[in-house]
What we know:
The complex is a heterodimer. By secondary structure, chain A is an all-alpha fold. Chain A has 13 helices and no strands. Chain A has helices at 3-15, 17-23, 25-28, 32-56, 60-77, 86-117, 126-141, 144-155, 159-183, 188-195, 200-233, 243-251, 255-288. In chain A, helix 8 (144-155) packs across helix 9 (159-183), helix 9 crosses helix 11 and helix 12 packs antiparallel against helix 13. Chain A is extended, with a radius of gyration of 27 Å. The mean pLDDT of chain A is 84. Chain B is mostly helical. Chain B folds into 2 domains: 10-63; 88-292, MetI-like (MetI-like fold), CATH 1.10.3720. Chain B is built from 11 helices and no strands. In chain B, helix 2 (52-69) crosses helix 11 (258-292) and helix 6 packs across helix 7. The longest helix of chain B is centred in the N-terminal third of the chain and has 39 residues, at 9-47. Chain B is extended and about 80 Å long. Chain B starts with 8 loop residues before the first helix and ends with a helix. The chains are: A mainly alpha, B mainly alpha. The interface between A and B is large, with 78 and 70 residues. Chain B: Belongs to the binding-protein-dependent transport system permease family. Chain B: It is found in: Cell membrane. Chain B: Pfam families: BPD_transp_1. Chain B: The chain crosses the membrane at residues 31-48, 101-127, 148-171, 256-278.
Amino acid sequence: MSGARSGALRATARADLARLRARYPEQFRADRAARARLIVGLGAVAGLAALACWRLDVSLPRILHGMGRLGTFAMLMLPPSPEGHLRIFLHALGETLGIAFLGTLTSAILAFPVAFLAARNVVPNPFARFAIRRGLDVLRSVDVLIWALIWINVVGLGPFAGLLAIACSDVGALGKLFSEAIETCDRRAGEGVVASGGSTLHRIRFGLIPGVLPVLASQVLYFFESNTRSATIIGIVGAGGIGQYLTELIRVLELKQVAFLVLMILVTVAAIDWVSTRLRRVIIGPAAR
Amino acid sequence: MRGLTKLAPEREAALSGHYAAATGAARRRTLLGFAVVATLAILAGYAAEVRPLVLAENIGQFTAYIRQILPPVGLDHPVADLRAWYWGLPSWLALLGETLLMAYLGTLLGALAGFALSFVAAANLVRSRLLRILAKRFLEICRTVPEVVFALLFVIAFGLGPMVGVLAVAIHTTGALGKLFSEVVENIDMRPVEGLSASGASWVETVRFAVLPQVLSNFASYGLLRFEINVRGAAVLGFVGAGGIGQEFLAAIRNFYYADVGAILGLIILTVVCIDLATERVRHRLIGPEQAR
């Protein structure tokens, strides 16, 4: 629709409003029941929000006061500069990427076989499936930072603990996504394999895996992206990566370097985003056709 | 079973030649992919200081840790043990409630901001390229900077307390939901929009009566999903001084109060799983009728 034409139409309709109202009273009548439901729902949401504001001590004056100080900080951040620590920062960034990459890879490798055990069309036994699913839920509901604290006790401070933490929490998430992808897979290929004399393993290998692999690969790429973000903060508990410097520099108010680090993270994440979008298109492309 | 039909030898040779060529190319591609991934993995392992030997040596410590935080509940008097294990239940529940409220308020504020911005960032509703790009970049920054970093900065600006957590969650949610919302808006059926435009509606009226009815159930579903993620995130925001159960949990870990670590972790997992199941049910109900149509 072109702008000029819709403008003209609008003007005509506006001029004719009274007649339209008279001609189609049904369309202009208010639906009272729906409106009452809406008001009750919105009231509940707003009431809970007010309770939260009161309990959490959130108030406009406090926010405005803090905003003023944030403004001062923002001025202190300019211009972003590494102030001679570029080499250290780049090393930390490399560490972060290493954590994200290997963490994602490990979790994908571990989640792959587990996902088949959690899928309805591979393991028909509901009890086994239920147990595996709840196990994955537990792994998933423990946050990466908590996993990092646990692993630091085992392998000591450093990026290795961060890697294990990301791997652990992602096994849960990827396992769930993988098993859902496997369950929604087209079953005709598998039936064909069984009909021509294949065993269950043959059915999985030739009937299921070729169909789900592109989907799984694209999910792994998504997780690599999001893990790059998680890996930037995992340093605040001492598990390596750029977060360690970020925390310390914020604490001592070296805000120019903080701004530089944040810019580095933004650029890195954007670059990974770009690469993985390309890769995803390559992987998904043939399957979509 | 019947025997397979034998092909003529030259035909068989030609077919198997084609097959070998096709699988060979695919196999070479796969091997190349594996080689690239393996190289990257070795580089990443070097960067991340992977020490498998240390892991193998200390894996006993991991199981020992898990055993230590598991409940010290015996079969002799389980109820008393359980009560002793959860000695701090009232205060923990209060802190957990604080975390939940933090996640709720943060999700709500973020969803409102993301809601408003998503219509500006949607290509099919806003003609100005500049406005759209500005909105998209803003959402991207909100989304990419981790909420813990926002929380660290806000703690200095606003002082310790749960309000910091609310703001950090809200900003991150704005970025994440704004993007998802705008993608939903870009995929709507444009005919109602044109119809309303034609009958004289303004931009706001068009959004209210033509766009909202189409996107609202999807928005609510994404919002619930985000709430679930934010509960998990809010639980750890306490690590940097943003209130809630996280602060107590970090103290327990740092002081090696193993039983408390186990108890609080159990509470967090239980809460997250419950919210997970509840939101999933609500989301299925929201999305269900849409797909049935």
